Amino acid sequence: MEPLGATTVFLVICVSCLLFFSVRRKTSGSGKLPPGPVAFPLIGNALQLNLRNMPDSVHKISAKYGPVFTLSFGSERIVILCGHKAVKEALIDQGEDFSGRGTFPLADVLAKGTGIIFSNGEQWKQLRRFALTTLRNFGMGKKSIEMRIQEEARFLVERLRNTHGQPFDPTICLTHTVSNVICSIVFGDRFDYEDQKFLTLINLVEENNDLVGSALVQVYNFFPTFMSYLPGPHKKILKNSQEFNSFVRERIKMHKESLDPSCPRDFIDAFLIKMEEERQNGQSVFNTDNLVRSTIDLFLAGTGTTSTTLRHGLLLLLKYPDVEEKVHEEIDRVIGRNRSPCMVDRSQMPYTDAVIHEIQRFVNLVPFSVPHAVTKDVRFREYVIPKGTTVILSLQSILHDGKEFPNPEQFNPGHFLDENGAFKKSDFFMPFSAGKRICAGEGLARMELFLVLTVILQNNFTLKPLIDPKDIDVTSIPNFVILAPKPYRLCVLPR
């Protein structure tokens, strides 16, 4: 038995060495990838990363290897970029080279390369161009969508009044408000807050957002082939997504039955008209699968991030009542209480504008953006990154840069104010990422954040926490995708 045991150990060592050097060849070789911690066979750098707090792990590795380094997720090579200088060089100076969409296993299974967010190449360019044009045609960045946000904000105010000063969780009402704005663009109309299908959609979104942060889902993104055979939260995410797909397909069917090509009502109508125009083009990217996924992309992007930012914002104002009071004073001075806030007011409200920017900077909502990829073999600094390599950006390293934002871990609207109290722009403000893959809905999100927050504070509401402000915990729930605040309740009281 002893010789057999020795032989087995020897074989295991040989196989491990072969796998080790195989991975090393993938992460170095002719590509001359940036340096990084040694990757173990099969598992890559999984054991060196805290899957519950990836931003912290990346920060520690960057301190040792510099702003550009390589990690292995399983056997997949990932290049990480940290700091404003490196990210700007990639996304702005070499924007076309870094404009691909990187590998994100769970999203790859859900989107299958379709839609606006997770597609690549010419398909992505055509779909994004069409989406931006259509969003503008239906009011994004114009007075019409501003009026739509104002209307939805009035519904929100009514719901807040109906709490009658009792404690409540703001998650659902904020999500409904923001979601209905994008619904009016995508589906052609808002939903009643009691509409059962609408409530089901929101519940699916909220549940998936919670599940995405689980450790097992992060393990799935490291080892998708292995994990696909096992039960876990990734299975529930897939099931919820299928239900969401069915809803969108049902809406598309309804649109087809009532479509008037001379008068498109929304994004779905516009896409259906484009499909008909390109019906004879066998290579057209305008097909049903891309319509379904593009609609879902717009709905999810227009619902989750902005509503979560607003939840962070209310929590921070509870934590810092002196900041809330200064915003109240500016609203009273510039807008008063007899008309709705509008976007032209923002230029006269530097403190409120600074508060909203600081909320976005402080919470670092999407710490790694969405993965990019290089579209060809790219020479970047002294390295050569092979075509198709996934590139992840650490937006936290920019938004929490201590030189640009002194004491970056502290919430301070002064980060965006000059010595005279005027609003101060910063090139380091990148919550929407940058370059060719910058968030398509940035303009809409900025408008919603300003109008919704000012409407809440304008309407005779003072935010009241249930505990002493100094005891409020504003740290986020650890997550690789979106950093949500811990659940909380508050009261809104007449001023």
From TrEMBL:
UniProt-listed GO biological process terms: epoxygenase P450 pathway; xenobiotic metabolic process
Gene Ontology cellular-component terms listed: endoplasmic reticulum membrane
EC numbers: 1.14.14.1
Catalytic activity: an organic molecule + reduced [NADPH--hemoprotein reductase] + O2 = an alcohol + oxidized [NADPH--hemoprotein reductase] + H2O + H(+)
InterPro entries: Cyt_P450, Cyt_P450_CS, Cyt_P450_E_grp-I, Cyt_P450_sf, Cytochrome_P450_fam2
Binding site for heme: 439
Predominant place of localization: endoplasmic reticulum
Keyword terms, alphabetized: Endoplasmic reticulum, Heme, Iron, Membrane, Metal-binding, Microsome, Monooxygenase, Oxidoreductase, Transmembrane, Transmembrane helix
EC class: oxidoreductase
Pfam families given in the database record: p450
Keyword field contains Hydrolase: no
Membrane topology: Peripheral membrane protein
Subcellular location field: Endoplasmic reticulum membrane; Microsome membrane
Transmembrane segments: 6-23
Known cofactor(s): heme
Superkingdom as given in the UniProt entry: Eukaryota
Membrane in keyword set: yes
A molecular-function term among this protein's GO annotations: iron ion binding
Entry's family note: Belongs to the cytochrome P450 family.
Function, in words: Cytochromes P450 are a group of heme-thiolate monooxygenases. In liver microsomes, this enzyme is involved in an NADPH-dependent electron transport pathway. It oxidizes a variety of structurally unrelated compounds, including steroids, fatty acids, and xenobiotics.
Official protein name in the record: unspecific monooxygenase
Organism this protein belongs to: Pelodiscus sinensis
